[in-house]
Amino acid sequence: MIVSAGSRIEPRRYGGVSMKERSTTLGINLAVGPDADAEQVADATLQLRRELLDLDVDAVELPRAGEPPPGTRAVELAALGALVVTVGQSQLLTAVVAAVRAWLAGSQHRSIKLELGGDVLELTRLPSKEQRRLTDEWLRRHESR
Q: Which secondary structure element, helix H or strand E, spans residue 100, and what is its range?
C-alpha cells in the first residue's frame, strides 16, 4: 500500500499577518524482508519514524488503515509499514531521503517507496549509480516546488 501524498496550503500568522505556507506530505511504504512478521514490520516502522522525527519535519504519522473490528478495544488500526511525513519546506526532502538511506543500511532485505504527488521513488539497501541518479532527479523535481 502506498499512502497517497500531496500538498496542502495552511494559513500561518506571523506578527499578526496571515501568510500561506505550503506543506508537503510524503507517503512512505517500507518493507523489511520476505520473512518479516507484523511485529518486525511495526518495529522497523517505529524505528524509522523516530529517526525522521529527529529532523526538522512538521510531523511523522502512522496513517489509519481502517476501523477496528467490532468488539475490540483498539482505538484505530495503523497501516502496517506506512508513514506520512509532513514537511514545511521542500528542501527538507533531502534530509528525509538521507535518513531513509541510513535506515535502509540496517538490513540487506529492506526496501522503501516514497510517494509525493503521485511520483514514486523506490529505494533498496544497496544504492546503484542508477538508483542515485533517479533519487537526485526525484529530489530536483520536488525541491523546486
A: helix 93-104
pLDDT, tens only, 8-25:
333 333 333 233 356 889
List the CATH number of the domain containing 26: 3.30.70
Q: Could you tell me the three cell numbers for 41?
A: 514490520
Task: Supply φ then ψ for residue 137, to 5 degrees.
Answer: -65, -45
Task: Please say if the pLDDT value at position 74 is more than 50.
Answer: yes
User: What total number of domains does the chain contain?
Assistant: 1
Instruction: For 91-129, write each residue's pLDDT tens digit.
Output: 789 999 999 988 988 888 889 999 998 999 999 877 788
Long-range Cβ pairs for the range 57-64 (8 Å, 24+): 57/85, 57/86, 57/87, 57/88, 57/92, 57/96, 58/23, 58/86, 58/87, 58/88, 59/84, 59/85, 59/86, 60/84, 60/85, 60/86, 61/85, 61/86, 63/3, 63/27
Pull the grid cell for residue 91.
Answer: 528542501
